[in-house]
UniProtKB/TrEMBL annotation:
<dbReference type="GO" id="GO:0040029">
    <property type="term" value="P:epigenetic regulation of gene expression"/>
</dbReference>
<dbReference type="InterPro" id="IPR000286">
    <property type="entry name" value="HDACs"/>
</dbReference>
<dbReference type="InterPro" id="IPR003085">
    <property type="entry name" value="AcuC"/>
</dbReference>
<dbReference type="InterPro" id="IPR023801">
    <property type="entry name" value="His_deacetylse_dom"/>
</dbReference>
<comment type="similarity">
    <text>Belongs to the histone deacetylase family.</text>
</comment>
<dbReference type="InterPro" id="IPR023696">
    <property type="entry name" value="Ureohydrolase_dom_sf"/>
</dbReference>
<dbReference type="GO" id="GO:0045150">
    <property type="term" value="P:acetoin catabolic process"/>
</dbReference>
<protein>
    <recommendedName>
        <fullName>Acetoin utilization protein AcuC</fullName>
    </recommendedName>
</protein>
<dbReference type="InterPro" id="IPR037138">
    <property type="entry name" value="His_deacetylse_dom_sf"/>
</dbReference>
<dbReference type="GO" id="GO:0004407">
    <property type="term" value="F:histone deacetylase activity"/>
</dbReference>
<keyword id="KW-0006">Acetoin catabolism</keyword>
<dbReference type="Pfam" id="PF00850">
    <property type="entry name" value="Hist_deacetyl"/>
</dbReference>
<comment type="pathway">
    <text>Ketone degradation; acetoin degradation.</text>
</comment>
<feature type="domain" description="Histone deacetylase">
    <location>
        <begin position="21"/>
        <end position="317"/>
    </location>
</feature>
Length: 392
């Protein structure tokens, strides 16, 4: 068994909405370059495999046939504007080969998920994935095919009965929640900036799952400005108790790093160090509850050079069971590549210099504090549905 299955080929950078679009594939290219320079991808037990694109049958397990036809048509004619399917918008402009590029991302996530489920790898990672906003019949929020939902559905079709999905992107994981809102086999947990101030405008604590799946959707809507300490307080107050009550067979996680204080599209204030801590916590929960079975994807993240490569290299290193000391300098060859190709000053170390810490919910909560109000709203909404006391 491999320690980690990493879905990667340079072809994954073909998911590219064009110059000026925030979701620039340079972020995944620089992540893989950094991980290679630091020896993460060359270690024992690390299996890097170029994915095959998901075929139409796989894509139709989540997406409608009409939508696949629309994506293929737009892929052949990038001037297409198909608002009914969310294509040709500012967020989701059409590009040549869009269907093929999107299917390749989906294929990478499905392959990583099945490698874990079938026992060929303990962990699976697709940093090019995490396109969690796509709906069954439409593109949304830079996402054409919803690879996390497709990966989870592939697991269910392979016989899985209890999957937990935890989404730490700054934006609500609305597409994944929508796909499984009525499915009692899937628990979705999303920690995100409040929908009052950020796209997609969903993810309130009152969204708790459909009939027969009550408590299957969990949303922590964090106030703008939440930093490492507050984010970790919210995580610890909600995620571990629910996962321990749920007892998933496999943990599936989405790791958008747009929660960083330097991200240009949102308003949280985490550091790379806080994000690294979230990866460590989720890794440890997978080992505690799922015999280590863990599938992780990338997601959002628009500080393309300053944040994303370091954050996701930490993710890959943790998945490889070879965590990187945050004080580690970034490799000279990687810095030279950035300076030469982008005329930018690269980060010098794998840390922002923070030491994440938090106060535990059990220490008491302040009802006048907006963060504690957000945490308490989530606990009140869903804890009783899992036979948990929201007060403790």
């Amino acid at each position: 068994m491999h320690t980690v299955h990493v879905a990667w080929s340079d072809a994954l950078t073909g998911y590219n909405f064009g110059p000026g679009h925030p979701l620039n594939p340079v972020r995944v290219d620089l992540t893989i370059r950094l991980a290679r320079e630091l020896g993460v991808l060359g270690g024992d037990g690390v299996h890097v495999e170029a994915p095959d694109p998901a075929d139409d049958a796989a894509l139709r397990t989540v997406h409608t046939a009409d939508y696949l036809d629309a994506v293929k048509a737009a892929s052949a004619d990038p001037d297409t504007v198909d608002l009914a399917h969310g294509l040709g918008t500012t967020d989701d402009p059409c590009f040549s080969g869009m269907h093929e590029a999107s299917a390749l991302v989906a294929g990478g996530t499905i392959a990583a998920a099945l490698a874990v489920w079938e026992g060929r790898a303990l962990h699976g990672v697709n940093v090019a994935g995490g396109l969690h906003h796509a709906m069954p019949g439409s593109a949304s929020g830079f996402c054409v095919y919803n690879d996390p939902a497709l990966g989870i559905q592939a697991l269910l079709d392979a016989g899985a009965e209890r999957i937990a999905y935890v989404d730490v992107d700054v934006h609500h994981g609305d597409g994944v929640q929508a796909v499984f809102y009525d499915d009692p086999r899937v628990l979705t947990i999303s920690l995100h900036e409040t929908p009052r101030t950020l796209f997609p405008g969903t993810g309130y604590p009152t969204e708790t799952g459909g009939p027969g799946a009550e408590g299957g959707a969990v949303n922590v809507a964090l106030p703008p400005g939440t930093s490492d300490a507050g984010w970790l307080r919210a995580f610890h107050a909600v995620v571990p108790p629910l996962l321990r009550a749920w007892r998933p067979q496999l943990l599936f996680t989405q790791h958008g790093c747009d929660s960083h204080l330097e991200d240009p599209l949102a308003h949280l204030a985490l550091t790379v160090d806080g994000q690294r801590e979230s990866y460590r916590l989720l890794h440890d929960l997978a080992h505690e509850l799922c015999d280590g079975r863990w599938v992780a994807t990338g997601g959002g993240g628009y500080a393309l050079i300053e944040v994303v490569p370091r954050a996701w290299t930490h993710l890959l290193a943790i998945a490889a069971e070879r965590p990187i000391d945050p004080a580690t300098p970034t490799p000279p060859a990687w810095r030279t590549h950035i300076q030469g190709h982008y005329s930018r000053t690269p980060p010098q170390r794998m840390t922002d210099g923070a030491r994440p810490a938090h106060s535990d919910w059990s220490d008491g909560y302040d009802p006048s504090n907006p963060l504690d109000q957000a945490i308490n709203a989530t606990r009140l909404a869903v804890f009783p549905l899992h036979a948990l006391d929201p007060a403790y």
